Amino acid sequence: MDSLTATVPRTRYANAAAETRTFWALTVAGFRRYSTYRQATVAGAFTNTVFGFLRCYVLLAVAAGAGTATVAGYDPARLATFVWFGQGLLTVVALWGWTDLAQRISTGDVVADLLRPINPVTNYLATDVGRAGHAVLTRLLPPVLIGPLFFPIYLPHRWSTWPLFVLSVVLATVLCFGCRFLVNASAYWLLDIRGPMILWTLLSGVLGGLYFPLRFLPDWLIGPLWLLTPLPSLFQTPLDVLVEVDPTPRQLGLIAIQAAWAVGLLLLCRLVQRRAERKLVVQGG
């Protein structure tokens, strides 16, 4: 069956050190690529900050209307932290807007990708990690620094929360890449991904914890949503870890769920890519 694949044998990258250097080079290239869009970066950071004010006032009004000190474990400071760090993480995790693979499939340029001695999943993942690193510096910091000037925020009380938060953000970024890759890869069969992209945009925003904390939902829905779908691991888990609504053991459990989904989706991405390569060969591509 290996003869049916379009990808050149990757014996040149059998050495782990060579693969690591290649991944790092692609990551740096991804960072440099996104660092060239300076005006778009400034405009995006400004927009995220403006929407941060709107979302923060809305959620604080909801909390005040509940008539209790906390809502689903969130006090006003935790809600403000949820909003402002969420606005900063929006571009780091990058829910929407990536259609590079789908465009290359529709134009046929993806054939050139298959001739390169590196798996397309690894190639795009490394580039996306570089993009996320650039977003941490340019899109995460502005809302996080501006929000506390106008709203009281919650800072973690446990020293272990900060490294767990960083780990959770990394896993969320990888997990989101896997989801976006699969949406793009549907173009191998559908050619036009506007339908899957619209569905992904709606579900990831609502069920990912971007618009409101998912703990506002009924208890009977939260558990299955967390275990049966990867969506809460995109935003809800990193932000819940940060504001310490759970004790450390439960934080570790949520991160373990993230890691399981991230590994599973990356394996699924490779499987889908291999099936797509065989399809291209059968069609004569």
From TrEMBL:
Q: Mind telling me which residue stretches traverse the membrane in this protein?
A: 42-67, 79-98, 136-155, 161-183, 195-214, 252-272
Entry keyword annotation includes Cell wall biogenesis/degradation: no
Q: Which InterPro entries match?
A: ABC-2_transporter-like
Q: Name the coiled-coil region(s).
A: none
The organism's superkingdom is given as Bacteria
Q: Tell whether Transmembrane helix is among the UniProt keywords.
A: yes
- Alphabetic keyword roster: Membrane, Transmembrane, Transmembrane helix
- Tell me what this protein is called: ABC-2 type transport system permease protein
Organism (species): Asanoa ferruginea
